Amino acid sequence: MTLRWEQVIVHAVDPAALGQWWASALGWVVVHSDDDEFEIRPVPDQTPGLDFVRVEEGRTAKSRLHLDFRPDDQAAEVARLEALGAKRVDIGQGEQSWVVLADPEGNEFCVLGQRAS
Question: How far is it, in rounded angstroms, from Cα 25 to Cα 35?
């Protein structure tokens, strides 16, 4: 039996707007778009991707799943993402080596520091 990871589903009030924001943030391409769904991938034939699916209600609690990213330059990447519209958020993480941000719909994600040698 083979199990292959296809995508992560992200519920969104505005799938196209949120999906386009993530496409810009990640430099990914749009592979599908309609009124209720917006899917992006690193390149058209490469998975996993992110699939933004319409829901009527906004997010009401802390995310139970979030994405972590490890850039070459944490400070530069955080500044770039903030310029795109990400916001720093406090989810009780305290002083850590990572920065917690939220996308335009409030979904948290982390920008990690350099991995220890």
Answer: 21
Residues 6+ apart with CB under 8 A from 112: 68, 69, 70, 71, 74, 97, 98
**Phi and psi (nearest 5°) for 4?**
-120, 130
Kind of pairing between the strands at 67-69 and 108-111: parallel
**Mean pLDDT score of the chain, rounded to an integer?**
93
Q: Which residues of 9-28 are buried (b: 16+ CB within 10 A; e: fewer)?
A: ebbbeebbebbbbbbebeeb
Assess whether pLDDT exceeds 90 at residue 70. yes
Instruction: Indicate the pTM of the whole model.
Output: 0.90
User: How far apart, in Å, are the Cα atoms of 74 and each of 47, 48, 58, 82?
Assistant: 25, 24, 29, 12
Question: Do the bridges between strand 49-54 and strand 7-12 make them parallel or antiparallel, or are there none, so unpaired?
Answer: parallel
